[in-house]
Amino acid sequence: MNFGYREVCLDHDTGKRHPESPDRLRAIRRGLADCHDVEYVAPDDADPALIKAVHDPDYVDEVRDFCESGGGNWDADTVACEETWPAILASAGLAEWAAERALAGDDGRATPFALGRPPGHHAVADDAMGFCFVNNVSVAAQAALESDADRVAVLDWDVHHGNGTQDIWYDDGDVLFASIHEEGLYPGTGEVEETGEGDGDMRTINVPYPPGADTTDYLAAIDDVIGPSVRAFDPELVLVSAGFDAHRHDPISRMEVSSEGYGLLADRVRSIADDCDAGLAFVLEGGYNLDTLTDSLTTVHEVFDRYTPSTPDDDEVSEGAREVLDELLDQGFGEE
Ligand SMILES: [Zn+2]
User: Fold this and answer.
1) In degrees rounded to 5, what are phi and psi of residue 86?
2) Known catalytic residue: 247?
3) Taking a C-beta distance cutoff of 8 angstroms, is the pair 325, 221 a contact?
4) 226 backbone dihedrals φ, ψ, rounded to 5°
5) pTM of whole model > 0.90?
6) Active-site residue, from 12, 55, 121, 122
7) CB 108: neighbour CB atoms within 10 A?
8) What residues does the ion ligand 1 have nearby, CB within 5 Å?
9) Crossing angle of helices 57-68/84-103, nearest 10°?
10) Ligand 1 center to 291 CA (angstroms)
11) What's the pLDDT at 335?
12) What does the pLDDT look like over 96-113, one tens digit per residue?
């Protein structure tokens, strides 16, 4: 894969013992050093005007001023320092680059993956939260809509609900947002009944799985509900909000996805994008066990280097997951 990466993203200092630390990117880089066909690209910063097209402009200025005056705690767990602002612009720029390259036709071994931080999917239109200031994947979607694309699908497999991305596009018919997340975990949103409104009606798909959902359950969400809905939507670009914190060894969730499972998820998403003749790009979100974050991400990379991940032994969808999928099918999702 082609990885968008900027050193400045390491300078976003969240303090000691914060799970969202620069060590995450360092660990990923070390893991990728052992892989074949890894290319790094250092794209430009995002233009603040593009960021302001998805966020309240006053809020964006407020974040810049907050960082430039030294930062601190925006809320209990969302922390900034002076260097956070340049990291924010770089991180959003990486996502923008990924969207542009995917739309330009970069695929296969050249599939783009934006390795930025701070992450983005919790940032709502006018507020930072959950370690996120600017919604990077939404900046990517906006960049795509401002160039060639009429329709963009965002698939968020981070273990937390991508409430920010949902918030930004909730009444917009041009972006389909689908999230698989652990029910009851931060930030507590993402119910099956949240399906969009106005032009965005049925353009939001939430799969709130009970704790313990595993790779088989995640694959079923894609095969039974998200995949058919995305194919019917027929986007020109598919963006993945790629968090790796649903891993069975991640410290902040109770899900049971394996490293191989992330490879299988990536493979499924690639098939969907291929079926739609759409570009495909990945944007890093969470993932807090450095070893499993690295393992999972390198497995995704290997899938684009012709590796076939092994399927789980247990191919039975759990009862709790099946109930959620049935509710979504009842809502009318999952039809091609
Ligand atoms: Zn997360």
Assistant:
1) -60, -35
2) no
3) yes
4) -70, -45
5) yes
6) 122
7) 12
8) 158, 160, 243, 245, 286
9) 130
10) 16
11) 84
12) 999 999 999 999 999 999
